[in-house]
TrEMBL record:
It is found in: Mitochondrion intermembrane space. It comes from Amphilophus citrinellus. This is Coiled-coil-helix-coiled-coil-helix domain-containing protein 7. GO terms for biological process: mitochondrial respiratory chain complex assembly. Its main location: mitochondrion. Signal peptide: none annotated. GO terms for cellular component: mitochondrial intermembrane space. Keywords: Disulfide bond, Mitochondrion. Belongs to the CHCHD7 family.
Length: 86
């Protein structure tokens, strides 16, 4: 079961914030897990999660499936906006 969850976390169609998560982890590794050095990365990850959560909630309300846009759909959405809003 744990392996299944790990695959979900790494699945770009399910997790829209893999890049932000990876960046946070890299920062922690570079700064020997001194969290105070990585707050910018943590904030970016939180903003990413919040942004896509709101999109998912709205799609669910509108009856759009899947709730979370696929990686390709998200790329189109972000490109149309001129980049990431977070």
């Amino acid at each position: 079961m744990i392996q299944m969850d790990a695959r979900k976390v790494r699945n770009q169609d399910i997790n829209p914030c893999i890049e932000e998560s990876d960046d946070s982890q890299k920062c922690l590794n570079v700064f020997n897990y001194d969290k105070s050095m990585c707050s910018t990365y943590f904030q970016r990850y939180k903003k990413c999660r919040k942004y896509w959560h709101n999109i998912m909630v709205q799609r669910r309300k509108d009856g759009v499936k899947p709730d979370m846009p696929t990686a390709a759909e998200r790329l189109e959405m972000l490109t149309a906006m001129g980049g990431k809003p977070y």
